[in-house]
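QUALITY CONTROL LOG
STEP: pairwise intake check
CHECKER ROLE: data steward
CRITERIA: each record must contain a sequence immediately followed by its structure tokens, with no blank fields

ENTRY 1 OF 2
RESULT FIELD BELOW
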Amino acid sequence: MATIRIPDEVPSPAQDSETLNKAFRGWGTDEKAIIRVLAKRNESQRKKIRESYKEIYGKDLIDDLSSELSGDFKKAVILWTKDPAERDARLANKVLNDKKITIEKLKILVEISCTSSPNHLIAVRKAYCSLYDSSLEQDIASSVPFPLAKLLVTLATSFRYDKEKVDKEVATIEAGMLHEAISKKQLDHDHVLYIIGTRSIYQLRATFVAYKQSYGNTLDKDVDGCPGDADLRSLLQMVILCIEFPEKHFAKVVRDSIEGFGTDEDSLTRAIVMRAEIDLMKVRGEYFNMYNASMDNAIIGDVSGDYKDFLMTLLGSKI
């Protein structure tokens, strides 16, 4: 369930564009007006605002936001205002151009590949080609070491069936194939990649249930105990969690971003922005179940200013 609250009566895109342009004019910027408009509009409405703003003022809204805002507030507003496919394509490209690619950074590619709808993933790949004159899978293959690239390319190029139809017999058979690969210490076996990379989310969840019923342990636990490449093991566990319980994954992302010394604002922003229109209500619930604490209060206690107000508005709070 989404958390953003859209007003019962929404101004026209032209009116919203005028409000935003007025917020940029004069002495200083009216950050609260920007939050009231953009943080309370859905993807379709934000697209119309971008188009209307360009038509009326002859300027790109993202460019004006970039010049008027600053810091983590600026990053969050721009990430939210961009077309989601372009947003994710840019996030992926940033990871792939990093001088040191870590498992923690590859988490973004897993999120895009495993927690998006099939149509969104296709849109991300199209946006990536348009922006960078290269394919996402090509850049993964050339930037990420083997065998991690093998798994990530499989995930990024998948087009999963998105209905709830499940074949329990297939689930049992493929649970056996996964168990055999783990027994042979072959986490990058073609059977593993085929199953994880092509089956629907609902079919895979049925396979994970069949695995536990047949072999006593969860698939995640057996992967964790499999000797071999530690990075591949960690990446595959991340994939399993994103497929089985995406809300738990993002609850963990939020928790990790605000725990310890300092705040990882980029990860916190990404989690809130990516899920605000999808399942952030569930993420909030899982956060409480996992950590016995309020996610909203944890965020309020860790960030401040307009950045805090923007995130909290995406979470459905009134500012």
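ENTRY 2 OF 2
RESULT FIELD BELOW
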Amino acid sequence: MQSSNHRLRDMEQHHPLLSAGADVETGSLAAGVMVGVPHTGHTGGNRTLWFIQDSCGMVCATMTWFLVLYAEFVVNFVMLLPAKNFWYSLLNGATFNSLAVLALASHLRTMLTDPGAVPKGNATKEYMESLQLKPGEVIYKCPKCCSIKPERAHHCSICKRCIRKMDHHCPWVNNCVGEKNQRFFVLFTMYIALISAHALGLSGMHFFTCIKVQWNECSDFSPGVSVLLLIFLCLEAILFLTFTAVMFGTQIHSICNDETEIERLKNEKPTWERRMRWDGMKAVFGGPPSLLWCNPFTGLRLRRLMLLTHGRRAGSEFSV
């Protein structure tokens, strides 16, 4: 599609002219906002519920919840409730359960937040004419979802959408990690690493205590069952701690260098002005450093969420 004002190219590797802040008419480039049709809501305003219908991702997300709830069961019912020290049980129980709730909340926010999807089919003649491009300027269209690709956007074959600042697609959260949900993914990895380390510490203390006394006095379960539950918990905690700690460090490094994992792997030369270190952290987490950075409930409006009763299926995701 060509005109006297601009040229349109189908390319996967690109250096487009559209910036991350470009808008489509009166709406932002987000899932649920389509050119030429009435707006169905803005993801940035929590009016769109995003969910990827990928069988592998849904299985992995379910497994994540199961393993966290399993850890909760073992920590609470095998180690803490039978303990004779009340304050030991209370403090560790409150800490572990609070971190677990924050981890699961972060997982939900990552999974159900639009990562920064570009609307499908917005590469229309009318829209391109509305951009008022200079003669000879080139914009790039994704041939897979027929959308104009903003700067630093990449196409995800699982989400079937172009995602702004796409870092990677994570099956454990059944979603892409992109511009709008990266902060929740970072919080998810941080809280999972913390509860894994806490569970390992509690398991070590429990083993050490039970060795000095009878196992029957340490738990309401039989010695054999208790040992099996604790061994599986330790293996789970070691695997989760290793994976999430590495992923957390990788994400922080990427944010501080303003470079996504895809851009690093493809060795893309930056055509944008990089936000280094604290500027990058502020851009992802929003505002100056504060405790709100660690809060996965920030920006969540429960009233709006409860009003989302009418769903609309759009490709591989639900837009509500």
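INTAKE CHECK: passed for both entries
DESCRIPTIVE NOTE, ENTRY 2: Confidence is low (pLDDT under 50) at residues 1-46, 309-320.
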